[in-house]
Design brief:
The complex is a heterodimer.
Chain A (H helix, E strand, L loop, with lengths): L5 E13 L5 E14 L3 E5 L6 H9 L6 E6 L2 E2 L7 E4 L11 H11 L5 H13 L15 H14 L4 E5 L7 H17 L7 E5 L3 H7 L2 E5 L6 E6 L14 H17 L4 H10 L1 E2 L1
Parallel strand pairs in A: 3-8, 3-9, 6-7, 7-8
Antiparallel strand pairs in A: 1-2, 1-4, 2-11, 4-5, 9-10
Helix pairs in contact in A: 2-3, 2-4, 3-4, 6-7
Chain B lengths: L1 H51 L5 H4 L2 H14 L3 H31 L1 H16 L6 H8 L3 H25 L3 H9 L4 H39 L4 H10 L3 H29 L7
Helix pairs in contact in B: 3-11, 4-5, 4-7, 4-9, 4-10, 5-7, 6-7, 7-9, 9-10, 9-11, 10-11
The chains are: A alpha/beta, B mainly alpha.
The complex binds adenosine-5'-triphosphate (ATP) and magnesium ion.
Chain lengths: 279, 278
């Protein structure tokens, strides 16, 4: 349990949502078990509505764990913490803050916005390719730029564990491609980034394979583990990796796993049987 | 043949079509104020004609020229300054107190479910009941001095502002609060850096509403219990049959009202530029 390489331990985890109106509990993860090594970039894929976002919000400490272990560095996660940050699915920028002020938010919230913090923010602005856009407000940014600010904001606090929830899903194919490359570049280039662990949720299997060291495939909801697939592609990875046969092979394999979860009708059945477990 | 005829037509049409919206907008921009001025001029002119031709008795109805003369006189003699200052300072004090009280209070109530449930009916009632109805009671409690008038202005302005701030604080984007929580922002930081700016458009809409009501409150208070202020001047001059002077004072009040409204609208534009969607 105290193996230093096991950064994150998920063991028989059950989480879900209490509905305040009806007083019922809807299970989102049921008996989820896997673990994540230190410094790994892990991607989670699974059918829509299976509980990926719910899992990530629990990991961020935004919703409580119903039962089971969800341990980071050997300690059960019970709330948000400074060593984790989340890249939201929607950019969720503060419209009244400009690019720099948005990126600074986490540092400011944690009382760490000193000269060093500012320097780091300036560095990140450059790293995510937003130089010259420092004073722009979110309404003046394109979707891709907003996502880059979102990413930089999460990186700014220099988290131990970076959580990313389909950060590129709202983007068009081209921007998405660019952002994936940018994320690998940032991940590989950010000096502070080495020695960090990332959990990346996505719908897009090639994206998962391109970015991750391991891909965790979840079942349709409520989610449990289907398989952990190792991605043994060499780093640093450039866009050409996507054309390699190994890449194709791994992608096809994962896709077949995901598709087998997506049998028509299966999801609704599962939801019906699990949707209402009253307390 | 048809094709060759069509294409030059289309080529010619495109720039004209593209230019039209711009010209249209400029046209509207100048047209609306001009039309507004024409409307005012027509009413003033008919009033003047009715008064000059004796259709109405200018002793009772005053007349634009008479009122304008009285206005100029009041500025020349300096008689206008003291009531103007009195009304303005009461409105200003009332607004300052209302804003300082309503913003933190509203944020607090809006962000706290129990406090909200506790105060919501009360505030709704206070907001809905015509506030001037409390005037006799307030006079009974606070007398008829300047303090009492400030109390009335606060009474008039506080509730619309409070209701807006609460509505804003309750309508915070869930995602913004999540960002705040993920980065471990303290409650105070969340209130100051998330809840407050997110509520600012509501606050300013509330201020616009409150300023209008504050002015009404001040004038009504002066009419009722006046010893000073523009409302008192209107009351005094009317009862002395000096309708020209009364109309002049009303004109000053109208100018204040318009300026206050525009001032707040300007503030809204400056402070919440980030929320515009255009
Ligand atoms: N706030 C909520 N209250 C109640 N139930 C919720 C809530 N959010 C999600 N759920 C339910 O929990 C389950 C998992 O949702 P979740 O958002 O985690 O799925 P997901 O895997 O992220 O899906 P997607 O890939 O489409 O984003 C779904 O059945 C959903 O209906
Ligand atoms: Mg999701």
């Amino acid at each position: 349990m105290n193996d230093p390489r096991r950064k994150l331990v998920v063991d028989d985890l059950r989480i879900g949502h209490w509905s305040r109106r009806s007083g019922t509990f809807a299970l989102a993860c049921d008996g989820l078990t896997f673990d994540v090594a230190e410094n790994a970039f892990v991607a989670i894929v699974g059918p829509s509505g299976c509980g990926k976002t719910t899992f990530l919000t629990a990991l961020a400490g935004l919703i409580p764990v119903e039962s089971g272990r969800l341990e980071l560095n050997g300690e059960q996660i019970s709330g948000p913490s400074r060593d984790r940050s989340l890249v939201f699915q929607q950019a969720s920028l503060f419209p009244w803050r400009n690019v720099v002020a948005n990126i600074e938010f986490g540092l400011k919230a944690q009382g760490r916005l000193d000269a060093e913090g500012r320097a780091r923010v300036a560095e990140l602005v450059e790293l995510v390719g937003l130089s010259g856009k420092e004073d722009k407000y979110p309404r003046e940014l394109s979707g891709g730029m907003s996502q880059r600010v979102n990413l930089a904001r999460a990186l700014a606090t220099d988290p131990d564990l970076l959580l990313l929830d389909e950060p590129f899903s709202a983007l068009d194919a081209q921007t998405r491609e660019l952002m994936q490359e940018e994320l690998t570049r940032v991940w590989q280039a950010d000096s502070a980034g080495s020695g960090k662990t990332a959990v990346f949720v996505t719908h897009d299997v090639p994206e998962a394979v391109f970015l991750a060291d391991r891909v965790i495939v979840l079942s349709s909801g409520p989610a449990h583990l289907v398989e952990v697939v190792e991605v043994n592609l060499p780093r640093p990875r450039g866009p050409e990796v996507k054309r390699s046969p190994e890449f194709q092979e791994i992608s096809d394999y994962i896709l077949s796993l995901v598709m087998s979860q997506n049998k028509p009708g299966r999801r609704t059945e599962d939801h019906d049987s699990n949707a209402a477990l009253s307390r | 043949m048809t094709a060759t005829q069509l294409s030059p037509g289309r080529v010619r049409k495109t720039p004209a079509g593209a230019a039209a919206p711009g010209r249209r907008r400029a046209f509207d921009r100048y047209l609306n104020p001009v039309l507004g001025a024409v409307g005012v001029a027509v009413v003033l002119a008919s009033w003047q004609i009715c008064a000059s031709t004796g259709v109405v008795d200018p002793k009772f109805s005053s007349s634009p020229s008479g009122a304008f003369g009285a206005l100029v006189d009041s500025f020349k003699s300096g008689d206008v300054w003291s009531p103007l200052g009195s009304t303005l300072s009461i409105v200003a004090w009332g607004m300052v107190i209302s804003i300082v009280a309503a913003i933190p209070l509203g944020l607090l109530i809006g962000r706290n479910r129990v406090l909200y449930a506790l105060t919501d009916p009360l505030i709704s009632i206070m907001y809905s009941v015509p506030y001037v109805v409390f005037l006799p009671m307030l006079i009974f409690w606070f007398g008829i001095g300047a303090d009492a008038r400030v109390v009335i202005v606060v009474w008039s302005a506080l509730f619309p502002l409070l209701i807006n701030v609460i509505a804003g604080a309750r309508n915070l984007e869930q995602s913004h609060l999540q960002v705040s929580r993920v980065f471990c922002a303290s409650r105070l930081m969340t209130l100051r850096s998330v809840a407050f700016p997110a509520t600012l458009p509501y606050i300013l809409a509330g201020v616009r509403q409150a300023v209008g009501r504050a002015l009404i409150g001040a004038i009504v208070a002066e009419l009722f219990m006046g010893s000073a202020g523009l409302g008192y001047v209107v009351q005094l001059k009317t009862s002395n049959f000096q309708t020209d002077d009364a109309m002049a004072a009303i004109a000053v009040i109208a100018v204040i009202a318009v300026l206050l409204n525009h001032g707040v609208a300007y503030l809204e534009q400056r402070l919440t530029f980030w929320s515009r969607t255009d």
